[in-house]
Amino acid sequence: MMTTSGRSVGLAAPEFRGVIERVKIIEYAQALGLRNPIHFDVAAARAAGYQDVVVPAGFMNPFSLQPRAWKFDTFKINEHAALAGEWSWDIHAPVCAGDELHGRSVLIELSEKQGKRPMDVLVIETKYLNEKNENVVTVRDVTLEFKDHK
């Protein structure tokens, strides 16, 4: 399906690559008030069998390692007319500080909703792969873009 905006399923953002930073994991864990020390204490994480502090669920998002503008530019989203609809995470393996991940965001579903405020509904999937090319996290985000925004 292609909408009037020129988007189509399969459209992909540029590949990204980056290292997960310990300080960012710790800040996130503290902001959420998490109590499990594997998320903020290196010694506790290592005692539990991890190489470093462990990324909590929800930490990985499409903007963790790629510029936010890539999403709006690649998928032709008017940021002023868009809302975050829903996010989901499939965690396939632990991610720790120091892990180098790479991946890409791809438009996997596209639909139009009619009604009082017509909108495009975009489902964008971002896969994070580790150094061994194993998929460690998959994030799906649903973005709603209203067509009547001026």
Describe the 3D structure.
The structure is a single chain. The chain has a domain at 16-20 and 60-146: Thiol Ester Dehydrase, Chain A (Roll). The radius of gyration is 17 Å and the shape is elongated. The longest helix is centred in the N-terminal third of the chain and has 11 residues, at 22-32. The chain is α+β, with helices and mostly antiparallel strands and 150 residues long. Helix content is 16%, strand content 34%. It has helices at residues 22-32, 42-47, 68-74, and strands at residues 16-19, 82-91, 100-113, 119-129, 135-146. Strand 4 (119-129) and strand 5 (135-146) form a beta hairpin. The model has no long low-confidence stretch (mean pLDDT 91). It has 3 helices and 5 strands; from the N terminus they run βαααββββ. The protein has a 5-stranded antiparallel β-sheet with strand order 1-3-4-5-2, with no helix packed on it.
Key descriptive features of the protein:
five-stranded antiparallel beta sheet, alpha+beta, 150 residues, Thiol Ester Dehydrase, Chain A
Helix content: 10-25%
Distance from N terminus to C terminus (CA atoms, Å) equals 24 Å
Structural classification: alpha+beta
Outline the biggest β-sheet. Answer: 5 strands, antiparallel
Taken from the alpha-carbon principal axes, the silhouette is: elongated
CATH-defined topology of one domain: Thiol Ester Dehydrase, Chain A
